[in-house]
Specification:
about 220 residues, mainly alpha, Arc Repressor Mutant, subunit A, Helicase, Ruva Protein, domain 3, 2 domains, three-stranded antiparallel sheet, two-stranded antiparallel ribbon, globular
Amino acid sequence: MNTAELEILQSKTLSHLSRSLYAFFLRPNAEKNILKLDTMAAAYYLSSSSSCFPTQASLDTVLKCLDELSAHKLVSYTQDAATGEYSVRLPLFMKEMRDLPALPFQMHLEWRPGPGFSQAALLCGLADSTISGSDLSSFISYWISKPEKRNQSAWERAFAQRLSRKRSVSGRAFRNAAVPDKTASYVPYAQSADIKQAETPRALENNSPAADDDDEDDLC
């Protein structure tokens, strides 16, 4: 949370519901590049079974919070006329991402892809730029121990390339698993001796494919 956001969130004219929705629901989603607002999830988040302050939130509650946050310049939101879906943007968060220094820096625990990540993802052939916590943590945990430095755009591009390749591999694995192997066939006994000879340790050593390259450098 940057200074500008904190200053507004501490305003006495901002309700606790709106403050909570921003800090614990909208902001974390923005850090994951999730722009579409799941209104049901937001209403569920705002609801509480507290014995002191029980809250039963609805779509109307969520929209009132968005209007209040919008009036305080913390969010801007639009509704798609065709689908009825809401898209939310956080101007102060996006400004912080744009203002990040262009100088190269090492990976750190607080790193997050910025507003430019969607474009980086498209350039890498990744139509869906939504990321999960595990995607982000595995990327950070690999690079944080390495001395390499990149600027924000380069880190975003590396992250997008990694996601694109891993999703492509997962997609191929799923398709292959769904198709039965039709290549298996009966091998006459006369040929089995030749096959066994070809499967000796030396033959396998000479003809084995290269080991899978697990180096994240190829993915990033």
